[in-house]
Amino acid sequence: MISNKHFNKLVAILMVIAVSFSLIIIVLPKSSSTATYIEQPDYVTTIFDDDKVMDINIEMDETAWQEMLDNASAEEYTAANITISGVTYNNVAIRPKGNSSLSQLVMDDTTERYSFKVKFDKYVDGQTLDGLSKLVLNNNMSDATYMKEYLSYKLLDSLGVPTPACSYANITVNGEEWGLYLAVEPVEEEFIERNYGSTDGNLYKPESDSVAVGGNKDKDSINNKPDFNPTQITQDSNNTTTENSNNQMMTPPDMNSGDNSNQQMQMPSDIGGGMIGGGIGGNSNGADLVWNGDDISNYSAIFDNAIFKTTDSDDYTKILDMIEHLDTMEDIESYLNVDEVLRYFAANTFLVNLDSYASNMNHNYYLYEDDGVVSILPWDYNLSFGGFQAGSASSAINFPIDSPVSGTLEDSPLIANLLEVDEYKELYHQYLDEIVNNFINNGTYETLITETDALISDYVKNDATA
Fold first, then answer.
1. How much is the pTM?
2. How far apart are CA 268 and CA 310, in angstroms?
3. 3 state SS of 50
4. Which of 93, 105, 116, 205 could bond 122 through an S-S bridge, CB–CB 3.0 to 4.6 Å?
């Protein structure tokens, strides 16, 4: 028998252990390192399978399909039946998507290869794709390799950055070949839920005035025509898709020419008064995260692009607190997930991805604020690997790791101010070393390229809208 003395001592020890364990759980940071303990939804494995190219057939009245393409800039949802890997989903909403890339395609009369956003539950309450309510279909614009975005996301994921799930999709329209796309999980509620365990925080997709052509279409641009009936979908078995022999995407700059005159993507002349981005003649409206006082209107690029409907003006102060403390760097880790931000920028630097926060465009990223702490999340990497603003192969290869922006560091405080702290700069360098050692030098990268090439090469050769 255990004496009362020893029993009380044992109970005390067990209580200390229990309390200590509880404290460890409480103080664990809400970062990508804890995401593996969150139960993942079915779609992560059933839809985003790295070993398969999923088949997606869009069934839509031919006239309705062409009308949607002809009015792509409106980004209005239209009803369709969509079959994915043999399973048909009726009355699904689909629309063209994009900002500068959409505008560029609208002005290009040689192609209709738009990216699309699919919404499964717009017309049918509760309808999902194995738990996913929306799906993005990216057209691999200006990427002849079809691999840049896919490889970028795999690199970001390997470094522990919360990253959208993705896989390749061969699209047909009414049974006719349309093209090889990259299917991507949107950075919205389900993404946040599976990475952070809840959607209690606030999500934003900053877009400076000179870039934001569309905005958050899911909130305000739903197709609400009085005569619109999503159940009236017909399919003509003789429908065909007209193929233009000149349907080629506009190519990125010649990286070997040394000519910097075309180093930026061509943009419509009426966007931002003919100037691109907030850093050159435009107005970032807070997308650069430069502190500009506590007037909320100075940060409209952030707050006008809140993703969650529950976000209100009271939540804005948490972002303002982060930006102000980023400016002073006082107690910054209480407002910014510094470790996650450094991982993100290590990957972004390695990829020379300038169509992002790292250029005067100040876009293609998300901010997620949870309990007052802000993280940066990746998006849109079709112009990574020096495909935007690099100017030449030499410039891309010698991209400076300690000033990894195309403009000035003063206009990029999210990385510039962190690199001024020796501890953070050393950690950033460690993550760059981790990429080299654990992703490149050990053969992971080469194997990934080889396997991806084997998976998609036949689809690329036969892409009807390449």
1. 0.80
2. 34
3. coil
4. 93
